[in-house]
């Protein structure tokens, strides 16, 4: 019966989700079930019974009139927008969400590592300046910590990208999702939206208060030796740690919810199967601009780090990021167009 049920779902997949169509589907389901049970009682095997039921009731065009949906079927046949759509099974949807969760965390943890990678160097640099350590130790620490941490981060980015590569079609192709699965995904998204909204809010708060430990420590009158550890070490470590943790939470929350949204585009409720036509993605108008913009954020990161380490003015150097964001928005607005697939 499971085979018959799946076949029935596919038969009605592209029909509008109306009371009339739902009634017809339930009637046909009962007819198929009765016929199947009748054949089993006659001694037919399950495969034989399924084959006979599908051959007798499997052509919707032939039985549409008896079900009272002849006009609806004709209209859909004249405008087969979903005829060549790629169908997502419940297993596909579940695996996509699982992979998206994993990829979001790996990507977020990679960014986290990039941000905290400088903490060992900052710590050792402060100790060298205070004559607690020799200068050569600073070089050793920089080479043995920053580059390996960045390497791990890059590996995480690559793994994250490879995990989601097989799901690119969800954004770029016309897809359909069965109504029951689509409803479950919407329910899960609504159930989790508040949780991830809180996680995102906590991340934003961490980023917003990252300056607070440094401000508090700078107002306390410590001894000279203690000040090395509070202002030169504890302050930047707290700053980087709060930013890193905040960004991690924001990326995870946004990534997970984006996965749900990508699938709920396929569950608008207009048809008996969730469905969507890709609205298009924004791409750069020419390849040269795209190649240049790939280097935009790495360049901004380099400028931020160089300026921050040269001046140690961490309290204002972070302004580079919102300014860079505004500049990128203006560039994208002028150089990008929406492309449909």
From TrEMBL:
Q: Which InterPro entries match?
A: Perm_prefix_1 (IPR047928)
Which residues span the membrane? 105-128, 140-159, 195-217, 237-257
This protein's UniProt keywords = Membrane, Transmembrane, Transmembrane helix
Coiled-coil ranges from the UniProt annotation: none
Q: Is Protein transport found in the keyword set?
A: no
Highest rank taxon of the organism: Bacteria
Q: What is this protein called?
A: Beta-carotene 15,15'-monooxygenase
Q: Which organism is it from?
A: Eubacterium uniforme
